[in-house]
Write a structure and sequence with these properties.
The protein has 332 residues and is α/β, with parallel strands linked by helices. The chain has helices at 33-36, 44-66, 85-102, 111-117, 161-171, 178-186, 211-224, 226-229, 233-258, 274-285, 296-299, 303-314; strands spanning 2-7, 12-19, 23-31, 75-81, 106-110, 129-134, 139-146, 149-155, 263-267, 290-292. It has 12 helices and 10 strands. The strands form 2 sheets. It has a 5-stranded mixed β-sheet with strand order 3-2-1-4-5, with helices on both faces. Strands 8-7-6-9-10 form a 5-stranded mixed β-sheet, with helices on both faces. The structure holds 5'-O-[(R)-(carboxyoxy)(hydroxy)phosphoryl]adenosine and zinc ion.
Length: 332
């Protein structure tokens, strides 16, 4: 079965062609980082306009790369939420138009579910597993029991982890999106240079909080003065990153132990972070919990994870009709 996956939930226009839920024939992502960079964050109106420009060439490009024509496609999977409504509507409208014109079954996909399953594009991870989904908009813990069966275990009380990376990068004038820049700078910094506080939530809670660390960095920068902190940007980056990583690693391992699940999967853009990948492995493996990490291109938004999630709905006989709408606040 050939599935076309279309993803336009935020600022990346992406399309992929997946064969039998396993073989990626094409996976194309067009990033809008350069457009939103000067604003230090995604500007929704600009994102929608850019999707409109990109979507047809990206979908055509994916079909060309896969060496298939639209008539060969057996199903279309498209992100229906959560995300920016103007962005979502571009992908959804295109998918509906194609499905109508060529009589192809189509299904709407939950973007969060797709992140939780992205690891399965590369390896067969046995169920159940604990998934830490950390992206620009979400920080969530789920127990993934099977395709389509997810149990919520915890989430952020305020900012998402990726948002903390992006906001701290903006404070320091490092550009957008901030996660990758901070990750790279931190490699040459001392992560023990500054001891930023780690949020402590009630015992037994598996929630996260990242607004405190953001404020702590702001106070640090203000009290140190620009002249002084500009000389130690890698140290600030490494120390901040270490605090965020600790706050992600600890609840994830505790929730795995509390549920007696010996597998942890990282997902979402922040899962591309090199220190998070390293520390989660170190600490979990010491407790005999195995950690699975997708390649960075499957951590950040992509069409292949949408195609995979859609494939598992299509083979269960699920279909959506043309009344399907975008849902900016869709939950799992
Ligand atoms: O999953 P994603 O591509 O889009 C959303 O659904 O939000 O995640 C984007 C987020 C951004 O906040 C970005 O700064 C962060 O992931 N990110 C990283 C890294 N690469 C991307 N954060 C930390 N380290 C990275 N290497
Ligand atoms: Zn995402």
């Amino acid at each position: 079965m050939l599935v076309l996956g279309v993803e336009t939930s935020c600022d990346d226009t992406a399309a992929a062609v997946l064969l039998d839920g396993r073989t990626i024939l094409a996976n194309i992502v067009s990033s809008q980082d350069q457009i939103h960079g000067p604003y230090g964050g995604v500007v929704p109106e600009l994102a929608s306009r850019q999707h409109i420009k990109n979507i047809v060439p990206i979908v055509d490009g994916a079909l060309d790369k896969a060496n298939v024509s639209v008539q060969d496609i057996d199903g279309i999977a498209v992100t229906r939420g959560p995300g920016l409504v103007g962005s979502l509507l571009v992908g959804l409208s295109l998918a509906k138009g194609m499905a109508f014109r060529w009589t192809i079954p189509f299904v709407g996909v939950n973007h969060l579910e797709a992140h939780l399953l992205a690891i399965q594009l590369e390896q067969d991870v046995p169920f159940p597993y604990i998934a830490l989904l950390a992206s620009g908009g979400h920080t969530l813990l789920y127990c993934v029991k099977n395709f389509g069966n997810y149990v919520f275990l915890g989430g952020t009380r305020d900012d998402a982890a990726g948002e903390a990376f992006d906001k701290v990068a903006k404070m320091m004038g490092l550009g957008y999106p901030g996660g990758r820049v901070i990750d790279n700078l931190a490699k040459s910094g001392d992560r023990r240079a500054i001891r930023f506080p780690r949020a402590r939530l009630k015992k037994g809670s598996f929630d996260f909080s990242f607004s405190g660390i953001k404020t702590a960095v702001w106070h640090y920068l203000k009290s140190t003065g620009e002249e002084a902190w500009k000389n130690k940007v890698p140290d600030v980056a490494a120390s901040f990153q270490e605090a965020v990583v600790d706050m992600l690693v600890q609840p994830t391992i505790r929730v795995a132990e509390a549920n007696d699940v010996r597998r942890i999967v990282l997902a979402g853009g922040v899962a591309a972070n090199s220190r998070l990948r390293e520390k989660m492995k170190e600490e979990a493996e010491a407790k005999k919990i195995q950690v699975y990490v997708p390649a960075p291109k499957f951590c950040t938004d992509n069409g292949a994870m949408i195609a995979l999630t859609g494939y598992h709905r299509l083979i269960r006989g699920q279909r959506d009709d043309f009344r399907l709408n975008a849902d900016a606040d869709l939950t799992l």
